[in-house]
Specification:
Elements lengths: L1 H4 L10 H15 L12 H11 L3 H16 L12 H15 L2 E4 L2 E4 L10 E7 L2 E7 L6 E2 L5 E2 L14 E4 L9 H15 L5 H4 L7 H9 L6 H18 L12 H10 L3 E5 L5 H8 L7 E3 L12 H10 L6 E5 L2 H9 L3 E5 L2 H4 L4 E3 L7 H9 L7
Parallel strand pairs: 4-6, 7-8, 7-10, 8-9, 10-11, 11-12
Antiparallel strand pairs: 1-2, 2-5, 3-4, 6-12
Helix pairs in contact: 3-4, 3-5, 4-5, 6-9
Length: 384
């Protein structure tokens, strides 16, 4: 326990190899001599943490279950006197500092997970130095770092390092600008004219879908000939184009322009990967066309998101391999498409919607390219 509490003094951060050597020697000597069943109720939880650090996950699981059952199975025959509160706290630490392998750095908490046998996911929140952090890990996770207000997910990571990223592919609606309200109003007007029930809640199901797919969702099984279908799509688009006539640079979302400027200065290629067939016009009205190297839109590919085609087309236009690209998306279907394309992914919005992304952020406000790379890398501490 002393070694666990004084890990910093034994070099857990400054000299991890030395610390591991000391830990291994201490484990080999003390573990066989410790009464894990009837000794201190804190013992099993602490041993679970240290076993994780040594990569002894099966032993860690045995100790974890000893700690978990101390009151549930009344192992010490004294549960009638009250629960072992300290052991309960130790059990929480075994999960966070043992299995999740949380370490605290100047850049925020870092997870170096060691999943116990049978465990498939570990999701939790932390508050440290007044800031809140959320982790969502699975057994494929290597090392991940969270920033305040962000969520770290553990989706499969592309080969290579985020430091090798040479291109950023942005979705348009909900990422660069918020035309979602205009789309909603256009769909609402079409629905009203067709006598179809529709509201903002129903509109959420259209996020990330192509115009054709959105209309199919709106019709919800109602029959229509191809000619009628095409007419309704054209009518909706006419409503939408009328609504965006007054869109301008003022409609850029917070942080978008600043990030585009940083990317240009850093020599990073930038593409738009949007299913919208009005992407070019929207960008011209926003005044950012000169900051975009290529556009892949609804005219570029046949299959829309969550198929990876759009982002693969964007990478090809940039002349880059998928693994050297990161996609910034606000829709679950877009994140799915990015992962299917073998690219890095950043999701903007709630975890429930974009939690599969490698990194989840509330928005682009205050986001800088160098910090974004570091958050994706999440490998700024010691190796496992």
């Amino acid at each position: 326990m002393l070694l666990y509490l004084m890990r910093e003094q034994y070099g857990v951060t400054s000299d991890p190899e030395k610390y591991r050597e000391i830990l291994q020697r201490s484990w080999d000597y003390y573990s066989p001599r410790t009464d894990h069943t009837y000794g201190s109720s804190l013992g099993p939880a602490v041993h679970a943490i240290l076993a994780c650090e040594l990569g002894k996950t099966e032993e860690a699981y045995v100790h974890f279950m000893r700690a978990a059952m101390v009151d549930l199975e009344n192992v010490r025959r004294n549960a009638h006197e009250g629960i072992h509160a300290a052991s309960g706290g130790g059990l929480w630490q075994a999960i966070i500092f043992g299995c999740a392998g949380i370490k605290f750095t100047d850049d925020g908490p870092v997870a170096i997970p060691h999943f116990l046998p049978g465990w498939t996911r570990l999701k939790f929140k932390l508050q440290w130095r007044g800031q809140k952090y959320e982790f969502d890990l699975n057994p494929e996770t290597s090392t991940q770092t969270a920033q305040s207000g962000t969520t770290i997910s553990s989706s499969s990571r592309p080969p290579g390092s985020p430091a090798q990223i040479q291109g950023v592919i942005f979705d348009l609606d909900g990422v660069i600008t918020d035309t979602a309200e205009y789309h909603y109003q256009a769909w609402q007007k079409l629905a009203d004219e067709e006598g179809i029930p529709f509201n903002r809640e129903a509109n959420e199901a259209l996020r990330g879908l192509s115009r054709r797919e959105s209309l199919m969702e709106l019709l919800n099984g109602r029959s229509a000939t191809e000619e009628q279908f095409q007419e309704m799509m054209d009518r909706k688009n006419k409503f939408y184009l009328e609504l965006i006539k007054n869109i301008s640079k003022a409609d850029l979302l917070p942080g978008a322009l600043e990030l585009l400027i940083e990317l240009k200065e850093a020599g990073i290629k930038v593409a738009i990967g949007s299913g919208s067939k009005n992407a070019k016009e929207v960008m011209e009205r926003l005044g950012i066309s000169d900051r975009i190297d290529s556009i892949s839109d609804g005219y570029s590919v046949t299959r829309s998101k969550p198929a990876p085609d759009l982002f693969l087309h964007a990478a090809q236009q940039l002349g880059l391999e998928p693994a050297y690209c990161v996609v910034v998306e606000d829709a679950g279907s877009g994140v799915e498409a990015a992962l299917a394309a073998g690219m890095w992914s950043v999701g903007l919005g709630p975890v429930e919607r974009v939690g599969a992304a490698h990194l989840v952020l509330p928005s682009l406000e205050g986001i800088h390219w160098s910090n974004l790379q570091k958050q994706l890398a999440g490998n700024r501490l010691i190796p496992c």
